[in-house]
Every structure is written in structure tokens, then in C-alpha cells.
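Support request from a user on the community tier.

User writes: "When I paste my C-alpha cells into the form, the page sometimes reloads and wipes my input. The last time it worked, I copied everything first. Here is what I submitted, just in case something in the input itself triggers the reload:"
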């Protein structure tokens, strides 16, 4: 595999984006930042471009292009400005870029992430929603254009590390694998009764015990939809069927996931919960580089515990398995409804427990269809978002 050198980061101002810049900055001899993108934070984006010497900056909110230009000139940075979705796609496909970090949150990342795959780039995938919503179309694009897809999600990166070399292209059963054990901390409400969750606030939901992340994924961790999305993600990345993916609640977040083989061996990947580890692993693969992550202190950790997931208290997990088994655009509908519901919850327009009600009702209202092309994804996504928004406004008037 060609060594990575020139990097584009989609979603550079976010939690994953900034962790990626931290790892890259530790290795100026190896890596060069070519392009950075953000949604609306022009000050932060201009500052990052100036500090990391980016050749291109892209602001997704198109009307902010001129303001970004002024900001960059004020800093004396020669960075060229791109804007809008076309700009994101251009940034993902630049000929001088050989590696793209896809770290935009949600469905907004689909088009640029697919563009990176079409450009045959080495694709580091954090933006799990893009894979969940477009599974077969996404994987087909990766294969047809010779893109190399490496998982950044800590669980999938862990599974990747526990698999035989170059597994991503191989067959799950043929490789002697029995199951994937996908660990998750259980989120901030792991030990709360469902009745105690009625009035939780976005601030409580975003206070994750082990990880500091963007708001959307933090709420997903609190509902456990994050683990549900990850089950679907594991299906597409590794070819595992739903019964071969077991969610394991592991509150310490030290084991990031495991692979069980037919001979009974279980291989786990461990480390401190710090996203710089999977980022560095994927960036340098198959080599290893310093990531700024401290050693795992097993004596301080003391004990590792495991629990079965509770599908009654966390119905999001049940809905995700259901969508995976239903197939076609069912995961697209699940993901779209979740994005709408989480945004409404963060905006204080929906109660926490109603997030999964919105998803379930949207899945019942919109019939899943076959997924043959990206147009099927876009249509199902739009229909589900419309229906979910209507359900949110209806429920909102009935919430205390
Ligand atoms: P974040 O909210 O911190 O950052 C999101 C980034 O996407 C920002 O740079 C923002 O400018 C950009 N963005 C947001 N909306 C956009 C839009 N409409 N158009 C263009 N750009 C937009 O999120 P994050 O926590 O860094 O997560 C990013 C992705 O990585 C998510 O898909 C998440 O599920 C995944 N992920 C994150 C973590 C983590 O530890 N943070 C771990 C695993 C996976
Ligand atoms: Mg994860």
C-alpha cells in the first residue's frame, strides 16, 4: 500500500477532525494537510488552515465563502477558498490528495464521502451515518473505484485490528470467524430506570462517562442508537450478518471490541479511550506511529466488567437490528428519523424518550424499498426526514 502523505479532512473543526490534526501535527515529516472543511465556523476553519498550511479551505455553508476569504487574507494565509456541497466534493476528490478523513456528522457527509471513494482515495471513515444510510451503494462505490476503506469508529477499528490481515475484502465465514463482539459503554444512562429518563436534558445526555465527542453522537450514545448504527456499520464493513454481531456493554471502555473465531479464540483490542489511537492506526496502516496517547494502566483500571444490552430500556438497539434485517432503505429511514429526532431533542423540542418513538413511527409510516442507486438513498432519506419532522411537531405538543 502506498504511504499516505497528502490529507484532506472533511469536518476539520469537529471532535474527530481536531483529533486528526493533533496526530498529523506530530508527524510533519510524514503528512501534509491539503484541504480542510467545516460547516459554518469560519474563524476556526481559517485559523486551522493558517496553522496547518492547508492549500484549500471549504466552508459548507456557501454564503460564508466571501467571509472565509476575508478571514484567511487577514491571517496572511494563501489558502484557496471552496464553498457549498460542490466545494466539499471538490475537496474530497483533489488529485493531490491521497487520503481523506470523512468526519462530517450525519447525512450531510454522504455526498463528499462517496466522492472520496469515487476518487479512489484511501478513505478513513468516521462518518458512520454515510455508510448506514447507503450501505450497498457505498460499498459498491468503494470496490469499483479501488478506494481503500479503513474504519475510524473505535469499535470497528478494533475489530479491524483483530481480524486476519487485509480482511476487509474477505469472506466472514471463510475466515473462520464466529462473531463480532461489539463493545459499548452503555452511555450516561446505563444504570437508570426508563422512568427516570423522561425529563433528562440535552446537557445530561451529552455528558458521556468516557468519551468527549460531538453532540449528535453523544445523544446517540445515551439512547444507544450509536451502538445500533454501529451494528449496521459492522455488517457492511465486515460482511457479518446480524446474528453474528453481539453487542456487549462494557462500562470501562478499555476493550474497544473483539472477534471470536470458530476455534473458540477471542481476540480483543484494548487501550485508553482516545480517538487518536484509531486515527493513527488507520493513517499509518500497516505501520504504527506515535499518537500522543498514554499507556493503558491496567493496575488503575482494576477490573473489566460486561453486561448484556437491555433492549427494553434502549429500544434504539432493537430498531437498528430490525432495520438491518429488513434491508433495502430501512437503515436509511432509521438514520434519517434519528437525525431529525436528535436535532429536535438538542433544540428542546422533543423529550429524550420520544426520540425512539419518532424513529419507530417513521419506520412504520415509510415503507422500505430496494436500494439500487444513490437516488434511492436520497429519496428514502428525504421522505423519512419529512415524516419524522411531522411526528416531532405532533409529539412536541403532547410533551410536558
Ligand atoms: P462534531 O459535531 O464534533 O463535528 C462535526 C464536523 O462536521 C464539524 O467539522 C462540522 O463543521 C461538520 N459539519 C456538521 N454539519 C455539517 C454540514 N451540514 N455540512 C458540512 N459539514 C458539517 O462531530 P464528531 O463527534 O467529530 O463526529 C463526526 C463523525 O464521526 C460522526 O459521524 C460521528 O458519529 C463519528 N464518530 C465520532 C467519534 C468521536 O469520538 N467524536 C467516534 C466515532 C465516530
Ligand atoms: Mg464507536
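"...and here is what came back when it finally went through:"
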Amino acid at each position: 500500500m502506498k504511504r499516505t502523505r497528502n490529507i484532506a479532512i472533511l469536518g476539520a473543526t469537529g471532535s474527530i477532525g481536531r483529533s486528526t490534526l493533533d496526530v498529523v501535527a506530530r508527524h510533519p515529516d510524514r503528512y501534509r494537510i491539503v484541504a480542510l472543511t467545516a460547516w459554518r465556523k469560519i474563524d476556526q476553519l481559517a485559523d486551522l488552515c493558517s496553522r496547518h498550511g492547508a492549500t484549500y479551505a471549504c466552508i459548507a455553508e456557501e454564503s460564508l465563502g466571501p467571509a472565509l476569504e476575508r478571514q484567511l487574507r487577514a491571517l496572511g494565509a494563501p489558502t484557496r477558498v471552496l464553498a457549498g456541497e460542490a466545494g466539499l466534493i471538490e475537496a474530497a476528490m483533489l488529485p493531490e490528495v491521497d487520503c481523506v478523513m470523512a468526519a462530517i456528522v450525519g447525512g450531510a457527509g454522504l455526498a463528499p464521502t462517496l466522492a472520496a471513494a469515487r476518487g479512489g482515495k484511501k478513505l478513513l471513515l468516521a462518518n458512520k451515518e454515510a455508510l448506514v444510510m447507503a450501505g450497498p451503494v457505498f460499498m459498491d462505490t468503494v470496490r469499483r473505484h479501488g478506494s481503500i476503506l479503513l474504519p475510524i469508529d473505535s469499535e470497528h477499528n478494533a475489530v479491524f485490528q483483530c481480524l486476519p490481515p487485509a480482511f476487509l475484502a474477505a469472506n466472514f465465514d471463510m475466515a473462520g470467524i464466529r462473531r463480532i463482539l461489539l463493545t459499548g459503554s452503555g452511555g450516561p444512562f446505563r444504570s437508570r430506570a426508563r422512568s427516570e429518563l423522561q425529563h433528562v436534558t440535552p446537557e445530561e445526555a451529552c455528558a458521556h462517562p468516557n468519551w468527549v465527542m460531538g453532540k449528535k453522537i453523544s445523544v446517540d450514545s445515551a439512547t444507544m442508537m450509536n451502538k445500533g448504527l454501529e451494528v449496521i456499520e459492522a455488517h457492511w464493513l465486515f460482511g457479518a450478518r446480524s446474528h453474528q454481531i453481539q453487542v456487549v456493554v462494557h462500562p470501562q471502555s478499555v476493550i474497544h471490541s473483539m472477534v471470536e473465531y470458530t476455534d473458540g479464540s477471542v481476540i480483543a483490542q484494548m487501550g485508553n479511550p482516545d480517538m487518536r489511537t484509531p486515527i493513527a492506526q488507520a493513517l499509518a496502516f500497516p505501520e504504527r506511529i506515535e499518537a500522543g496517547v498514554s499507556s493503558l494502566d491496567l493496575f488503575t483500571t482494576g477490573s473489566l466488567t460486561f453486561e448484556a444490552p437491555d433492549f427494553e430500556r434502549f429500544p434504539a438497539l432493537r430498531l437498528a437490528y430490525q432495520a438491518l434485517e429488513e434491508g433495502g432503505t430501512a437503515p436509511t429511514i432509521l438514520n434519517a428519523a434519528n437525525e431529525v429526532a436528535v436535532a429536535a431533542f438538542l433544540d428542546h423540542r422533543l423529550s429524550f424518550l420520544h426520540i425512539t418513538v419518532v424513529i419507530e413511527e417513521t419506520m412504520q409510516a415509510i415503507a422500505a424499498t430496494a436500494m439500487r442507486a444513490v437516488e434511492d438513498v436520497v429519496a428514502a432519506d428525504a421522505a423519512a426526514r419529512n415524516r419524522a419532522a411531522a411526528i416531532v411537531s405532533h409529539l412536541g405538543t403532547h410533551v410536558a
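Agent notes: The reload is a front-end session timeout and is unrelated to the input. The longest strand covers residues 177-184. The chain has three domains: 5-152, 154-272+298-311, 327-400. Escalated to web team.
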